[in-house]
Amino acid sequence: MNVIKAVAFMPNTPTLIGDMGVEHKDTIAALRSFGSEISGEIDAAVIMTPHFQTSGSFGIVASARLRQIFDYYGFPPSFYEVRYEPPGDPQLSEQIITMGKDAGIRIGQVSNWGLDHGAWSPLFHVFRNADVPIVPLSICPDLGYQAHVMLGRIMRSQSITNNLCVLSTGSLIHRLDLFQTGTDMTPPKALEYLNICISALGDGKWESIWNAPPDLIKAASPEGHNLPLRFIQGVVGDRFRARILANEIEFNAASLTTAVFEEA
Fold it and tell me: pTM of this prediction?
C-alpha cells in the first residue's frame, strides 16, 4: 500500500549550502529537525522543484544515480564544491509514470536532467547521508494548476510499494529583481501575501492562498506560480494543518518558509 510518511514544503536557496554573508540558522535547524523526525521511516522521497520545468507533460528523472546539477551562477567557488549525489529510484519512477497514464496525466522520463539545486540544497540538510533514493518531478505550467493537484492526488491515492516522503520546494515571496538590485525592505504587499499564506497553511485553508488579492500575489511573485504548492494540496487534501518550522526572509527579497503537513 501507498504509505506517505511525511509531506513538506521547503525553500531551495543556494545559500542553504554556502556563505553569502547571510545565515539561515532557523531554516537549517528546521530542515535537519524534519529529517531527524522521519529518519529510518522513509524508503524514498519524491520532490517537485520549480527549477525543473517541462512543457507538454510532467517530467520525471528515472535514473538509478542522479546527476547533481549546479543550476546557478555568480556564486563563490565553495558553492560548486558541495557534493550531494543520492541514488534515484527507477522502479518508483515507472510506477508514477504508469499511475499518471492510468489517470490521464502525462508524465515522461527526462534523460538530460538530474537533481537541481531546487531539490538538493534542502535535501542536503534533510537526508544528510544522501542515502535515501530521490525521484525528481518537474512543474509543467502548460498543464495548469489543476493537473498539479491531480498529480498530488495520484501520489496519495494509488498503490505504491514504498514508505514515501513527498516534498516540494519554492519561495512564497520570490522577488529576484529585488535581490539583484538590492533593497532595504521587503515590499509591504509581499509581506501581506506571505502572512495570508502562513495563516492559511496553519488553518488548513487552501482557498485563502489561491484567492489572495492579485496585487499582493504580484508583489510577492511566488516561485513557480505556486505550482509546487498545488502539488502538495493534492497530496494532503483538504483535511490538513501545516506546522511552520521556520519562516526567514533572505535579502528582503525571498521567503524561506518551511512547513510540514499533517492530517487535521
Answer: 0.94
